[in-house]
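Quick one, T. Sequence first:
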Amino acid sequence: MSYGDPNNPYPYGQTPQPSQPPPPPQQPPTAPGYTYGYGYPQQQPYSGYGYGYPGGATMPAQSMPGLLMTARVFLFIISATQILAGVAWLYVGAFVSDVTDDATSVVPMKSVGDAGHALAGLLIFFGLVSLAFAALSITLGVKFGRGGQGIRVTTVVYGALGTLVGFVFLIVALDNGPAAAVLYTLLWVGFGAVITAAPMVASGTAWFARPRY
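Structure tokens:
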């Protein structure tokens, strides 16, 4: 009976088995927006203006708060009335100036001519101021979409001054004014209060302080 080669280090005729290669490393499950390299997850770069949204998605557009939209509409309404008032003041001033010139040509009185021209100049001045305020109202309303803290502060000051003036006129109208004047000044005060408060509430402050890209 043969017991194999006595010089064989493996008894009983056993031969070494070739070593098996280690199994490949298990890949972790993929997730949206991530790639895996060198065993570590790597986040895909954002494209465009994703700003934190995976896959390069765009940030949803932020809408203007409702109170600010109301104040914006009020500014446009006020600008329309200011334009009408400014045109009316300019027309009356020009009319007074023409009447004064005709009167002084018939009756050459220096005092009448000076008074008439002074009144015409005052009316024209009121007309120009009204048109300037109309331009400011339109500018503020338009800038609500992209304006920052400067537009916010200017709107608050503009609305507060308008509310104060309207409140003074309301007191006068309540004393001895017609009902139409009282209604007009009430609307004036209400519009001014909304324009003043809209940029000061939390939603308005956040709107004007939001990042712009």
